[in-house]
Each structure stands twice: as C-alpha cells, then as structure tokens.
Design a protein that fits this description.
The structure is a homodimer. The first copy, chain A, is mostly helical. Chain A has a single domain, classed as Monooxygenase, CATH 1.20.1280.290. Chain A is built from four helices and no strands. Chain A has helices at 3-15, 19-28, 36-56, 59-82. In chain A, helix 2 (19-28) runs parallel beside helix 4. Chains A and B meet through helix 1, helix 2 and helix 3 of A and helix 1, helix 2 and helix 3 of B.
Chain lengths: 84, 84
C-alpha cells in the first residue's frame, strides 16, 4: 500500500480544514459563534506538531502544519474583523 | 531534548482544539457562524491521520487523532442542535 498517499490526503484535509470556516466568515460577515480560543489553541498546537515533524524528519507533518498555521492566521484575522 | 514532551503537548493542544468551540456553542446556544464543512472535513482528515500513525507506528499520532475524532463528533452533534 502506498502509505504516502494516505498521509498526503490526511494532510490536505486537515491542512485546509479551516478554509471552509474562513469562507463562511467572509460570506456571512459574521464570526460571533466562532471560538477564538479554538483558533489560538490550534495555532499553538500546529507549531509544536511542526517541531515534532522536524524530529521525526517527516516532511508531510512539517509542511501540513506550517500551511495550517498560515490558514489559522487568516482565520484569526477575519475573526477580529467580523466578531460583532 | 525530550521530544516526546513536544509531541504530547502538540497532541493535547490540537486533540482538544475543538473543545472551546463546543463550550462556546453550549454557552451561547448558537452555532450559526460555525462551519459544518470544517467539522466534517477535519473528521475525514483525522481518520486518515490515525491510519498514517498506524503506518508510522507512532502512538501519539494514533491516540491524538482518535480522541480528536470523538470531540468532532460531539461538536457536530451540538452544531445540529444549535444551528438556528
């Protein structure tokens, strides 16, 4: 079995997991019900996952969590724009 | 460096990353702005991450993603209860 395909699919799904949340905030111009604690907690978490990926020398873990961090930064930006 | 501590901290932060979102939905009795696509996309993703963890024989990856799946199921349940 080509395990790297499973890893890549997993990475794509979770890496871009907050993209639908970002799009929903943009479309509705509202973020009232979104938990900012969840967004900051995930940010701290993916930073540590990326470090753990360096330890494992696993490029998939490193790349996935680095890109997730970028999407989280975007989500946090829109949260503060639309949290009314 | 005790890398397993980094892995455990990363696992705790992301494993329970949706808990604040669950608590916010319970407290406000509202889930209007929460993206259900994000919740389902993460569910699919963590299932594949757990499989990838089996491949790497990494207990932290397996455990973290399995528990995350449970919290996502709870979050999806409250979403459908409060999505009004």
């Amino acid at each position: 079995m080509e395990w790297y395909i499973i890893g890549i699919l997993a990475a794509l799904l979770t890496t871009f997991g907050f993209v639908p949340q970002i799009l929903k905030m943009i479309n509705t111009r509202s973020a009232k019900d979104v938990s900012i604690v969840t967004l900051y907690q995930f940010s701290a978490g993916v930073i540590l996952w990326a470090l753990y990926g360096f330890h494992l020398r696993d490029h998939i873990i490193i790349a996935a969590n680095s890109i997730t961090l970028i999407t989280l930064a975007v989500a946090i930006g829109f949260y503060h724009r639309y949290d009314r």
